[in-house]
Design goal:
This protein is α+β, with helices and mostly antiparallel strands. The chain folds into 3 domains: 79 residues, no CATH class; 69 residues, no CATH class; 51 residues, no CATH class. The protein has 6 helices and 3 strands, in the order αααβααββα. It has a 3-stranded antiparallel sheet, with no helix packed on it. The longest helix is centred in the N-terminal third of the chain and has 28 residues. It starts with a helix and ends with a helix.
Amino acid sequence: MTDQYAELDAALERVIATARDHLAAVKAAQGRIDDDDVWQAYVALNNASYEYDERLLDAFGEVTPWDVESIDPDEADERFGVGLGGADGAEPLDPHPRVLSVRQRRDYRVPSVAALIRVAQAARRAAMPEGDEPEPVEGVGEAVLELLQAGDGSLGALDIPELEPLDGVVMLSETDAPIDLEAFDDEDSAGPFQPGPDDRLVGRLDEHPFLPDTDEADEVERAR
C-alpha cells in the first residue's frame, strides 16, 4: 500500500508541475493562436490529470472534478495539427492560392421604433464611463448601428426581441485579393460587396428565420 501511495503522490506532483508548465507556455505565447508550446503543455497537463484521476480511483474509489480523457500526442498532432505549419513549426506546404470572401445580408423588421431605441440607448449608456450621460439615439439606423458596435460588429448582437428577422443570404466566393477598404468612399454601400470579374462563387446559403406554425401557435395560445 505504501508503494501505491507513493505512486499517487508522484502523479499529483506531475499534475502540479505540468500545470505550471502550461501556465508558463500560455504567458509566453501572449495570446498567439495555435502555439506549439501551449499545445504540448496542454497535452502533458491533460494526461497527467488523467493519470492522477485513474490512480485515485484505483486506490480509494474517488474521482477528481476533471472530466478528461488521455490524449495520444502523435495521434492528436496528426488529426488536429499544431499551429499553422504542423508539429515542426514549418511553413504550410499547401497554402490556398486565393482569398475566401464571405458576404452576408440579413434583413429585419422593426415592430416598435420606441422599444428599439430604448435598447440601443441602454447599450450606449453601458459603454460609457459611469456618471456620463450619452447623447440620445436618433432613429432606427443609429439604434441598429449602436447595437452592432456594442457587439463588436457581430450580427448576433441583433438577435433581440426588438428586431424581427427576415430572410437573409450568405455567399462564399474565391477572389484574387483581399478587400482594400481605402478604395471605397464611406458612402459607397455597393462597392465593397460587389464581386470582382474573376471571383468564383463557391456557394450560396439562403437564411429563413424560424417562425412557429400559425395553427400550432394558436393552439398554444388557446391552451393558456
